[in-house]
Design a protein that fits this description.
- It comes from Devosia litorisediminis.
- This protein is an alpha+beta fold and 126 residues long.
- It has one domain: Aspartate Aminotransferase, domain 1 (Alpha-Beta Complex), CATH 3.90.1150.
- The chain is 31% helix and 24% strand.
- It has a five-stranded antiparallel β-sheet.
- The longest helix has 15 residues.
- The radius of gyration is 13 Å and the shape is globular.
Length: 126
């Protein structure tokens, strides 16, 4: 389980997840996972079958997942349809309940907006 900001970077499961990806994607994924892991009440776990890092809250359940791809990193919010659009950050209007934030290798990570979305996602069920 990922319980600190540092754990995702040094986890064997995390290393295996990102090993085939370009260095810029590995770095972006590690930074995004660290930002989410630092949010109070969340615990993360690498899901090998899903090729993601999933984050849960004790009361709210599954909150979000980080999916690294060859050319981008996606932050998927399980109940994203119910969240504020955070100034247009979330995509996926065609999805039934989830929404996602797409980060390209050179994009800044919108730390404050992600924190707000995480808090909002937890508050839906807490």
């Amino acid at each position: 389980m990922l319980t600190t900001v540092v754990d995702p970077v040094y986890s064997d499961d995390f290393a295996c997840l990102v090993a085939p990806l370009p260095p810029a994607i590995i770095e972006r994924t590690a930074r995004l996972v660290a930002v989410i892991a630092a949010h109070p009440g969340l615990s993360g776990k690498v899901m090998k079958g899903w090729k993601s890092v999933n984050f849960r809250h004790a009361i709210a359940g599954h909150v979000c997942s980080v999916f690294p791809h060859d050319d981008r990193v996606s932050l998927y919010f399980e109940h994203g349809r119910q969240l504020d659009r955070a100034e247009g950050l979330l995509e996926g209007d065609g999805l039934r309940k989830g929404r996602y934030l797409r980060l390209m290798p050179d994009d800044d990570i919108p730390v404050d907006a992600i924190g707000i979305l995480l808090s909002e996602a937890i508050a839906l069920f807490a």
